[in-house]
Design brief:
257 residues; alpha/beta; 4-stranded parallel beta sheet; 9 helices; 20% strand
C-alpha cells in the first residue's frame, strides 16, 4: 500500500481548478458535489487542494509544480506520477461513502468494481449509518466499556446479525437491538494454522475473525501480508506469550513445511 486512504472535507472551502473542457468540467462537478467552491489559480493562497486538467503535458506539469510550491496538494488528470492524491471511484449511500481506488493505475477498473458494489449494497445503508449516529449516546449508555461496545456492534453488524448492513430493513431494527441486544461474548481464543503466506488462501471465516480480533498472537513465520488483514488497531504480540484475559484473541501459527 503506497497511499493512505483519506476523506478530505472540502465543504465551504476553495479548490483550485486549472484547465478547461470535458476533463475540467468533470472535476468541477465533483468538487461542487462535495460542497467545495472552485476557484482559479489566482486564488490559490485561499486553497489547500488543486486539480490540473490540461491536455498539454508540459503545461500540466508546470502548473502542478507552481501549485505545489504554494503548499497545495495537487491532482493532475491522467498523470498519476505528478499526483499528491488520486481520485477513487465513489459509491454514495449518504452518509456512507465507499471509495475504490487503484492509485491511478486504472480508473476503468475502479469504476467497474464500484458498479459491482452498487448492486450489492442496499439503498437503506445510509439510513442505517444515520440511525447508528443518532443512537450513539444510547449505545454508550448500554455498553459503557469501549471494548464491549465495539464487540456488541461487531456482533450486530455481522452477516445475518440484527443490523446486517446488507439487509434492507436493518435501520428499522436499531431500537429493538438496543433493547434486546445480547451481552458481548467474553474472552475467546481461536487458533488458525496457516498453510502458506498468501492472504487469498484465508477462508472467509478466517478473514472475518482477523478483521474482528482484539489481539493477534503470531509466530515469527507468519507473513506480514497475513498480519495486515487484522484490524489496524488490533494488538500484535509475538509468540510465545499468554493471551490477554479479554476480547477475541486470534493465534496464528505457520504449519510446519
Amino acid at each position: 500500500m503506497n497511499s493512505l486512504p483519506l476523506f478530505h472535507r472540502i465543504a465551504g472551502t476553495k479548490v483550485v481548478l486549472v484547465g478547461s473542457g470535458a476533463m475540467a468540467e468533470a472535476k468541477q462537478r465533483l468538487v461542487e458535489r462535495a460542497g467545495g467552491e472552485v476557484c482559479s489559480e489566482a486564488e490559490a493562497h485561499h486553497a489547500r487542494l488543486a486539480f490540473v486538467a490540461l491536455e498539454d503535458g508540459r503545461k500540466a506539469e508546470a502548473a502542478a509544480l507552481r501549485l505545489k510550491r504554494l503548499g497545495l496538494l495537487v491532482n493532475v488528470a491522467d498523470r498519476p506520477e505528478l499526483c499528491d492524491f488520486t481520485l477513487p471511484s465513489v459509491l454514495e449511500r449518504e452518509p456512507v461513502l465507499i471509495a475504490v481506488g487503484t492509485g491511478g493505475a486504472s480508473a476503468g477498473l475502479a469504476k467497474h468494481l464500484r458498479l459491482r458494489l452498487e448492486r450489492l449494497l442496499p439503498a437503506g445503508l445510509g439510513a442505517l449509518a444515520s440511525g447508528l449516529s443518532e443512537a450513539k449516546d444510547r449505545i454508550r449508555a448500554r455498553w459503557p466499556d469501549g471494548d464491549d461496545r465495539r464487540r456488541a456492534l461487531d456482533a450486530a453488524l455481522s452477516e445475518h446479525g440484527p443490523l446486517d448492513p446488507l439487509a434492507s430493513d436493518s435501520a428499522g431494527r436499531i431500537a429493538d437491538w438496543l433493547a434486546d441486544g445480547a451481552e458481548p461474548q467474553g474472552a475467546q481464543v481461536i487458533e488458525i494454522e496457516l498453510a502458506g503466506d498468501d492472504p487469498d488462501e484465508l477462508t472467509l471465516r478466517q478473514a472475518r475473525l482477523l478483521g474482528m480480533a482484539d489481539t493477534v498472537l503470531h509466530d515469527s513465520a507468519v507473513a506480514e501480508a497475513i498480519l495486515i488483514r487484522a484490524r489496524a488497531d488490533a494488538r500484535r504480540m509475538a509468540l510465545p506469550c499468554d493471551p490477554p484475559g479479554n476480547g477475541l484473541t486470534i493465534v496464528l501459527r505457520r504449519a510446519a513445511p
